[in-house]
Amino acid sequence: MKLFIDTADINEIREAAEMGVIDGVTTNPSLVSKTGKPFRQVIDEILKVVDGPISAEVVALDFAGMLAEGKDLAKIHKNIVVKVPLTVDGLKAARALSDEGIPVNQTLCFSPMQAMLSAKAGAAYISPFVGRLDDISQDGMELIRQIVQIYENYDFTTEVLVASVRNPIHLLESALIGADVATVPLKVIKQLTHHPLTDKGLDAFLADWEKVPK
Ligand code: E4P
To answer: Is the pTM higher than 0.90?
Structure first.
């Protein structure tokens, strides 16, 4: 499973990149806004740190606007993936951009049939938001199971990119289900490294090392 980092914070991206575990980056307007920096500056900084797919989201709501923004974003760098919302106009934009060879990440997916439409429209990635479904007492991971099954049934090539990941269990279940990608905040990446037996074992090794004659 590929691991993307879900942030626009360049320090977090640098830290995860140094760990050697990330394959790409996803941003959204809220994450960019948190940085307090201009959008283009944020994207340029990320491009210098990560050589992999970097999702940058359009903010237009209409087809023509999304298409124009998407084309402009794609011109920045070959690694840019244009993030487009899952609406009627967003599906039209996914089809048009994909037909021009521009990869699309279709975002804000909350149902399996939305995901099927994105695959049919040629999106490179579908982003189902598991955490936000859990937040309203719906099973986010069940959505991932259903999408993976539907894509397998019909050999759709759109990659399932698990988004709105809130905890290590979301990651474990994504990997067991066979999702292609998960995009994860740095906090969760760090949580994955922790195990009490690792800490305990390390303490014991260091204590024993002190007894080795110097
Ligand atoms: C996906 O690409 C989104 O940026 C993100 O995963 C949304 O997560 P949130 O629900 O924690 O805001």
So the answer is: yes
CATH code of the domain in which 117 resides: 3.20.20.70
Q: Check if 190 is active-site.
A: no
pLDDT for the residue numbered 171: 98
- Pure H helices in 84-178: 88-99, 112-120, 130-135, 140-153, 168-177
Structural domain range at position 37: 2-211
Structure tokens at 159: 């990659």
The count of domains in the chain is: 1
- The owner of tokens 């974003």 is 73
Q: Which residues are near ligand 1 (CB < 6 Å)?
A: 6, 26, 28, 107, 127, 129, 131-132, 163-164, 183
* Contact by Cβ (8 Å): 158, 123: yes
The residue annotated as part of the active site, out of 48, 83, 187, 211, is 83
Residues of the chain with pLDDT under 70: none
Tell me the pLDDT tens digit for each residue of 18-71: 999 999 999 999 999 999 999 999 999 999 999 999 999 999 999 999 999 999
